[in-house]
Write a structure and sequence with these properties.
Blueprint: H1 12-27, H2 35-52, H3 59-66, H4 75-90, H5 99-110, E1 126-129, E2 132-136, H6 143-156, H7 161-175, H8 182-197, H9 206-212, H10 214-227, H11 231-254, H12 257-265, E3 271-272, H13 273-280, H14 285-298, E4 302-304, E5 316-319, H15 321-325
Helix pairs in contact: 1-11, 2-3, 2-4, 2-9, 4-5, 6-7, 7-8, 7-11, 9-11, 10-11, 12-14
């Protein structure tokens, strides 16, 4: 079979982003040894990817399901989380260029949610958004051939994994090979490709950053479809990957000394600034603000009890689900 190369252009901005990501990887190499951070990022990854598809589970609920404990939530959302946990546990065993592994992954992600998980769609499909049709997938009879070509290209390309994974992600979404679950599969498979390149990516919550910029994610897909090549989507995903690496590296740095002491002080319940400063033995408010509370808030480890009024006199701070994971 003659392999057709997906259309894309390597721009100077893309090359610059690849260099930046390389530097960020060098700074984040200790993440894979930090078991607590690995767990946090796994929760963020699963919650982020599912939330993009409308799943309403919180990080705390995903954490509870990860521990095998019951939660009160819509049954479908719980099933989606259990499936995703199983898929992310198994995906390092899969070959990114294997159709059998791809179909198996879809079966795991969508079991109990579709009548025929792990099988290509057999009907026409459209991608909706805001009450509008953004994309019509290729006819179902073309899906097997298109996927065979895409997987063959992935298995034979010498392109940089950062680019190859982004190209695959976009082309996968364009083909939309399954009746449902295409978004979460595309994100899972990009993570798989990146993890095969650098195992560190098994512990980088790229999906969480995609969720935070969900509208930009879909905009990049639409722009690539409009231009007839995946270049805009590549640029967007490289930006997301870089942000995910920097955020994780920031959290690694911040969960030390002062912030760790702050988290310990909050384990007994919400506290005011005055209560926290007294417990931490601090008298200089700017020190508390700049070295303790701001880094913890920025890292998503602590939240306000009254975020709508940050300067309220009775404002208190409490641990987030993410903060409670830090031991």
């Amino acid at each position: 079979m003659k392999i057709e190369n997906p259309p894309y252009t390597i721009t100077p901005d893309i090359l610059f982003r690849i260099e930046e990501i390389g530097e960020a990887i060098g700074r984040a190499t200790g993440i894979s040894q930090d078991l607590r951070l690995r767990r946090i990022n796994r929760i963020l990854t699963i919650r982020g990817s599912l939330a993009i598809e409308g799943n309403i589970l919180s990080e705390e609920q995903v954490s509870t399901i990860l521990d095998g404990k019951p939660v009160i939530a819509p049954p479908r959302d719980i099933q989606e989380a259990r499936n995703a946990i199983k898929a992310y546990d198994q995906y390092p065993q899969w070959n990114p260029a294997s159709e059998a592994d791809l179909l198996r992954a879809h079966e795991i992600l969508m079991i109990g949610l579709l009548d025929a998980p792990g099988q290509y769609r057999r009907r026409d499909i459209g991608v909706m958004g805001g009450g509008e049709v953004h994309h019509i997938g290729p006819p179902p009879m073309r899906v097997p051939q298109l996927m065979a070509n895409l997987l063959a290209w992935l298995g034979s390309t010498d392109e940089h994994p950062l680019i190859a994974s982004s190209v695959f992600h976009y082309e996968f979404e364009f083909i939309h090979p399954f009746e449902d679950g295409n978004g979460r599969m595309g994100r899972l498979w990009q993570t798989l490709i990146l993890t095969r390149w650098k195992p560190l990516f098994a512990h980088i919550p790229v999906e969480s950053l995609v969720h935070a910029r969900q509208s930009d994610y879909y905009k990049a897909i639409r722009q690539s479809s409009s231009e007839g090549e995946s270049t805009p989507f590549i640029a967007f995903m490289l930006e997301i990957i870089l942000d995910a690496l920097r955020t994780t590296d920031q959290v690694t740095d911040q969960v030390t000394d002062q912030v760790a002491r702050l988290l310990t002080a909050l384990r007994t319940g919400p506290k005011t600034t005055a209560e926290l400063m007294a417990e931490l033995g601090l008298s200089h408010r700017p020190t508390f603000r700049n070295n303790y509370i701001r880094p913890a808030l920025s890292a998503g480890l602590v939240e306000m009890t009254r975020p709508e009024t940050p300067t309220a006199r009775n404002q208190k701070y409490r641990l987030t689900a993410r903060g409670r994971e830090i031991q």
